[in-house]
Write a structure and sequence with these properties.
six-stranded mixed β-sheet; 11 helices; five-stranded mixed β-sheet; alpha/beta; Alpha-Beta Plaits; single chain; D-Maltodextrin-Binding Protein, domain 2; 31% strand; 436 residues; 22 strands; 3 domains; 60s Ribosomal Protein L30, Chain: A
Length: 436
């Protein structure tokens, strides 16, 4: 078998162990994804860093990724006048029978300037063959936490942005998952969530993607395709609607109830049995805020208990939704990929060719490897009328051997594949509060 050399490079923001580890792992993940490499096929890897970086950490990053049996070497490069600063390079010797033209080198971040011929159309990175953003690691490891949710430690001072007003269910989900101490930032729209994280204004963003009663949120999935943020975690919130009113209000005083149309629909039976008029508002938490400001007689609002606490409203009744299974699923989005957890999911989006059996054969890559798909949904491909993309969630992490091989097989069959992320899966909440 031949031995091919694969080159890669990236830059790093600072000369620190966490930054060098994260950047090196991002580069190695990109090389693996671009070439379908397995550690058992690697003969050796040589890491070099520019003199302004500590050479002790790149090989350590590879060891942490599971390259335990691969010979590794770290070195400091000879200083070069006007050379690229803060640069990490790697040369991987790969045992493969592939021809040279089938070997893909990867240059990320500022290192793109070393090989502009490999840059992607957006000009920011060369990321292999999968048509999507290559991932990075470096987020702290997940840990079990209250409410049955797998939670990972986020950096001190981190901010999580969400769509809506303070007291929104999205904010409640953040507090449930990360604790009440976390700093949150309201955004006016889903687009602003992505913009805040991409610009560094927020560390993470919480995006609602699906409700057990209303189905998928199409705009959210379209934005996941358009942007390059990674899914860092799955969060599920059991939505418990509360009837809120200004202090001193009694149920007998109520004639109308304001809230978002979806919340009113989810409490339709509760409202009708009491003869109350439902009045649409743009937001659940917003309706609570306005009611607290106006104290409109005979009016209540449907929102979260957190909204009642935020705006000083009394909770007259809780768990008033008609269905006891009203759950919203969120993705916690970030710029880095978390390490594998105990129970993982992977989300992708792909498009097939317009040929008979294309979708059947694509999905067969997962069925033949006994991978359980937990969701599959099609959406129109907006740049090609009457063509479609398929969003798929599956059990497992992309680094798992069977998932990795399935994704490699899918790459060969599909028009494009984008990895949205591999992340800790949410634990289903047991039990419920009784609805009225």
């Amino acid at each position: 078998m031949l031995c091919r050399g694969i080159r890669g490079a990236t830059t790093v923001d600072e000369n620190s162990q966490p930054a060098i580890l994260a950047a090196t792992q991002e580069l190695l993940h990109a090389l693996i994804s671009a070439n379908d490499i397995f550690p058992a096929d690697i003969a050796s890897a040589i890491f070099t860093v520019t003199p302004d970086l500590n050479a002790a950490f790149p090989a350590e990053a590879a060891r942490r990724m599971g390259w335990t049996d691969v010979p590794l070497m770290d070195a400091v490069e000879v200083p070069v006048l006007d050379g690229l600063p803060h640069c990490i390079r790697v040369l991987v010797h790969w045992n493969t029978s592939r021809p040279p033209e089938a070997v893909h080198h990867v240059y990320l971040r500022g290192a793109i300037g070393l090989r502009p011929d490999l840059a992607t159309p957006n000009g920011d990175r060369a990321s292999g063959r999968n048509g999507g953003r290559t991932g990075s690691t470096g987020s702290p490891a997940p840990r079990p936490e209250a409410n049955g949710q797998p939670v990972f430690h986020i950096p001190h001072g981190a901010t999580v942005t969400y769509q809506g007003e303070p007291g929104a269910y999205s904010q409640e989900a953040i507090f449930q998952y990360l604790g009440n101490h976390i700093q949150t930032l309201p955004s006016a729209s889903f687009e602003e969530i992505f913009a805040a994280v991409e610009s560094g204004k927020a560390t993470y963003g919480l995006l609602p993607v699906e409700n057990s009663q209303a189905g998928s949120i199409n705009q959210a999935y379209d934005l996941l395709l358009d942007h390059d943020l990674r899914i860092a975690a799955e969060v599920k919130l059991r939505v418990r609607h509360c009837l809120l009113a200004p202090p001193g209000t009694k149920p007998a005083d109520i004639r109308r109830v304001r809230s978002h149309p979806q919340a009113l629909a989810q409490c339709d039976r509760y409202l009708k049995t009491r003869g109350w008029e439902g009045v649409s508002a743009y937001d659940t938490a917003g309706s609570a805020r306005e009611l607290a400001a106006t104290r409109e007689p005979g009016t209540a609002a449907i929102a979260s208990a957190l909204a009642g606490q935020t705006y000083g409203l009394d909770v007259l009744d809780a768990g008033i939704e008609d269905s006891p299974y009203n759950t919203t699923r969120f993705f916690l989005l970030g710029r880095e990929e978390p390490p594998p957890a105990g129970h993982n999911k992977t989300s992708i989006v792909f498009a097939t060719t317009h040929t008979p059996g294309a979708l059947y054969n694509s999905l067969g890559e997962f069925a033949s490897r006994n991978i359980n798909l937990t969701k599959i949904e099609s959406r129109p491909r907006r740049d090609r009328p009457w063509h479609y993309v398929f969003y798929v969630d599956m059990e497992g992490h992309w680094q798992d051997t069977n998932v990795h091989r399935a994704l490699s097989g899918l790459l060969a069959r599909s028009a494009f594949v984008k990895l949205l992320g591999s992340y800790p899966a949410a634990v289903e909440e047991e039990g419920r509060q009784g609805n009225k």
